[in-house]
Amino acid sequence: MKPPLAHNRNGKTEREYRAGCSVCWGEKVHWTTANAQALAVQHHDRTGHETWCDIDARSRYGRAAPDDRQIDIEDMIASASSGDAPGCASLSTAYEAAKEARP
Known about the structure:
This protein is an alpha+beta fold. The protein contains three helices and two strands.
């Protein structure tokens, strides 16, 4: 049996667009929206100038599962370096102290 064509998965794709005209702006980016490539083509068609467009795409699928071992490692490092005493005040304690110190 063939797997389904569409999978139910978490994923996202981000794109970054940069385009410009070598004659008008050199290497300086002028267009950055999703239609940057179309604008560069239209500008070339209207002016005959050399235009350019760079598109970067980043795709991510799924999520990294939390590694419970990481917390254990951090706890071991903290206890080894502080002799089991806290190395610093907790953030909530520091926040409460700062809040009380305000006039």
